[in-house]
């Protein structure tokens, strides 16, 4: 993830045009996964810090060490930082880089799902359990068996099943895996080959493990063909999210190096999903990562940008903006700076 040049940006002007402002400003937060639990909004973000690690394409400068949960009584109320909910030092298997998390609620327990690098430098996904949506969470001693790569997003379907979507290329290491097996020699496909796909697995009843083999999530173009690796304005990069609207499943994701949040629509939580457009145009900062959440009958995009840090790519701030649907179910594209 290279550092973008932001020298030419007038941040005062940009902030005036921004469709929303950071929800909190006393620390940097990113990758917001938002949920409504018991009528209140809870946001599970990454907690960005400057770990003093030089920029590189592996994203090593994203050296996060803990998670804080942000809560809001309503969409217009102040956002509250509830303090440290889980720290790297309390996760036995993890060594560094606590990246984008998500959370789920089941039977009175709350589950924080998070990626981190293990002692061998390979990303895996862990679970930590708590009695409150704001934590503290106690991590399981081992990561989820069969998990790899980054950016877990957990979707609860109406039948009570929970699915985890995950994966990310480049720093997220997805290109090192084929058929769920790691090989250091694996690389990205060629531009005219199908792009690497995000992954999905149903969770066990206790939400602590996968209940089935990890499967690929197909993202198809308008002709029913898989998107190609060279189609980098549409192909999957990272930041999976799933939500359901009017009986359809919407899989949304970041295109990474082209900086769009896109979506694809399907009839099953496993897909296939057909590419349907953009939700968010590029923000300031290299990464773009979001979640979509219904709050009191309206739909909101939780996202981040680097405007508060004046463009520092790994010092981001969580924001929220309403999204709207057209009659045909398509989503109106948001421009973060009108
Ligand atoms: O926050 C670290 C990484 O940056 C996330 O895991 C990616 O989705 C990107 O936002």
From TrEMBL:
Would the keyword Cytoplasm turn up in this protein's UniProt record? no
Presence of keyword Nuclease? no
Q: Which InterPro entries match?
A: Glyco_hydro_43, Glyco_hydro_beta-prop_sf, Glycosyl_Hydrlase_43_Enz
Keywords attached to this Swiss-Prot or TrEMBL record, sorted alphabetically, are: Carbohydrate metabolism, Glycosidase, Hydrolase, Polysaccharide degradation, Xylan degradation
Task: Identify a single GO molecular function assigned to this protein.
Answer: hydrolase activity
Q: Which family does it belong to?
A: Belongs to the glycosyl hydrolase 43 family.
Query: What's the protein called, per UniProt?
Result: Glycoside hydrolase family 43 protein
What's the source species for this entry?
Thalassobellus suaedae
């Amino acid at each position: 993830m290279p550092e973008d040049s932001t020298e030419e940006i007038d941040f005062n002007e940009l902030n005036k045009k921004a469709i929303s402002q950071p929800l909190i400003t006393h620390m940097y937060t990113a990758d917001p996964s938002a949920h409504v639990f018991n009528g209140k909004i809870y946001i599970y973000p990454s907690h960005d810090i400057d770990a003093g690690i030089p920029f590189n394409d592996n994203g090593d400068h994203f050296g996060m060490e803990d998670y804080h949960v942000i809560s809001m009584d309503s969409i217009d109320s102040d956002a509250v930082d509830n303090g440290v909910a889980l720290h790297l030092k309390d996760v036995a298997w993890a060594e560094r880089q606590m990246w984008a998390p998500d959370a789920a609620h089941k039977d009175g327990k709350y589950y924080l799902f998070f990626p981190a690098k293990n002692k061998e430098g390979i990303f895996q996904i862990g679970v930590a359990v708590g009695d409150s949506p704001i934590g503290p969470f106690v991590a399981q001693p081992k990561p989820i068996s069969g998990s790899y790569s980054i950016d877990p997003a957990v979707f609860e379907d109406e039948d009570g099943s929970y699915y985890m979507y995950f994966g990310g290329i480049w720093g997220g290491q997805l290109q090192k895996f084929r058929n769920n097996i790691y090989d250091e020699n694996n690389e990205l496909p060629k531009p005219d080959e199908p792009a690497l796909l995000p992954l999905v697995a149903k969770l066990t009843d206790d939400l602590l493990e996968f209940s089935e083999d990890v499967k690929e999530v197909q993202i198809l173009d308008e002709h029913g063909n898989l998107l190609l690796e060279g189609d980098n304005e549409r192909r999957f990069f990272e930041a999976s999210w799933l939500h359901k609207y009017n009986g359809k499943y919407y899989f949304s994701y970041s295109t990474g190096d082209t900086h769009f949040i896109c979506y694809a629509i399907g009839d099953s939580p496993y897909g296939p999903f057909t590419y349907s457009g953009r939700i968010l145009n590029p923000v300031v900062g290299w990464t773009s990562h979001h979640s979509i959440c219904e709050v009191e009958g309206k739909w909101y995009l939780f996202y981040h940008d680097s405007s508060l840090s004046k463009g520092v790519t790994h010092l981001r701030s969580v924001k929220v903006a309403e999204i709207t649907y057209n009659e045909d179910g398509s989503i109106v594209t948001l421009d973060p700076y009108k």
